[in-house]
Amino acid sequence: MRTLLRARMDTRAGNEALRNGTLSKVIEEMIERLHPEAAYFTTLDGGRTCLLVFDMEDSSQMPAVSEKLFTEMEAEVELHPVMNADDLKKGLAALR
Predict the structure, then answer these.
(1) Which CA distances in Å does 59 have to 73, 77, 81?
(2) Does pLDDT of 12 surpass 90?
(3) pLDDT tens for residues 46-84?
(4) E-assigned strands of 1-96?
(5) Exposed (0-12), middle (13-18) or buried (19+): which is 53, by Cβ within 10 Å?
(6) What phi-psi label fits residue 4: left (phi over 0), alpha (psi between -120 and 50 degrees) or beta?
(7) Measured between alpha carbons, how far apart are the two ends of the chain, in Å?
(8) ∠ Cα 88 92 59 (to 5°)
(9) Which of 13, 52, 85, 91 could covalently link to 74 via disulfide, CB atoms 3.0 to 4.6 Å apart?
C-alpha cells in the first residue's frame, strides 16, 4: 500500500544528530531500506521534517520503519495510506 511517512524531528535531538553525523546516516539508511517513490525534506511546525512516499506491504513493517526515527531523532512519526491520481480514479469508478 502506498504510504506517506511524515517524521518531524525533535530540534535538540536533530541538532545533536547533525553534530555527530547520525542525521545523514539515519536518512540514508531509511531511503535505502524503503526505496521511496518520493522523498522531501522541509520544516513543518517549526522542526526538521521528512516526507516519504513508499510502498508498505504489511502493517508489521511499522516498527522497522519508525523505531529508528523515534529513538535516534526523537521524532513524531505519522504513517498514512495515500493515493495518487490513478488510484483515486479507480476508487471513484468503483462507487458506480
Answers:
(1) 22, 15, 11
(2) yes
(3) 999 999 999 999 999 999 999 999 999 999 999 999 999
(4) 2-8, 38-44, 47-55, 76-81
(5) middle
(6) beta
(7) 23
(8) 55
(9) 13
Side chain identity at residue 7, one-letter code: A
Q: Phi and psi for 53 in degrees, rounded to 5?
A: -115, 120
Residue 40 corresponds to which cell in the numbers above? 522531501
- Residue-averaged pLDDT of the chain: 95
Amino acid residing at 92: L
What would the grid cell of residue 43 be? 520544516
Q: Does the CA dihedral 15-67-35-33 come out positive or negative?
A: positive
Nearest to 66, CA basis, from 24, 26, 19: 26
